[in-house]
Design a protein that fits this description.
The chain has 178 residues and is of the alpha+beta class. The chain contains five helices and six strands, in the order ααααββββββα. Strands 1-2-3 form a three-stranded antiparallel sheet. The chain has a three-stranded antiparallel sheet with strand order 4-5-6. α2 packs antiparallel against α3. It starts with 10 loop residues before the first helix and ends with a helix.
């Protein structure tokens, strides 16, 4: 059975992925409001520039915070930024979360397993394969996502087997639901 090594997603990559997956309608609405306000400030007067600045410095941070609170803090999304590994089984994958146990004398940390969660393939509706990763999308749209990079596997054959197991598990679930 394929298994990943211990890995985690960089925080900046997580923010970009959340923004791309869940922030598109918000970005479109914000951009339209910003452009209309900027045009109004040029046509009607500079008072509208205050509206543009309010949108930029009040509404944009509020939108980003809402995106993070409602999507970034879901258990599936949090799993991406915590050190973890995944063991793939026939019906589910076991995600083992690690905590870094720091040694005060040397300043060197060691990964200590702190929790194991079995996630059945039936929790996922779909998956997306990128150039160097696969993203699993849960059935409930707002539940975040699970990211698995190719680099977390010992070799590319393990990655291909894991993706095959994921695809088979999702396909079996979808066939039984119909």
């Amino acid at each position: 059975m394929p298994q990943t090594g211990v890995y985690r997603m960089k925080h900046s990559m997580m923010a970009v992925r959340l923004f791309v997956m869940y922030g598109k309608p918000w970005v479109a609405a914000f951009t339209i409001m910003l452009l209309l306000s900027a045009i109004a400030s040029l046509i009607a007067g500079m008072e509208w520039m205050i509206v543009v600045l309010m949108l930029l410095f009040i509404l944009l941070p509020a939108m980003l915070a809402t995106l993070y609170l409602f999507h970034g803090l879901k258990p599936m999304s949090v799993a991406n930024i915590v050190e973890h590994d995944i063991a793939f089984g026939a019906d589910a994958m076991d995600v083992t979360f690690y905590m870094i146990d720091e040694d005060d004398d040397r300043g060197v940390g060691e990964n200590q397993a702190c929790d194991v969660r079995a996630i059945p393939y039936s929790e996922f509706a779909n998956f997306s394969i990128g150039a160097d990763d696969v993203t699993l999308i849960p059935r409930r749209r707002g539940d975040g996502f699970l990211w698995i990079p190719v680099s977390s596997f010992a070799d590319s054959d393990s990655f291909v087997k894991a993706v095959g197991m994921i695809a088979e598990g999702i396909r079996n679930t979808n066939e039984t639901k119909d």
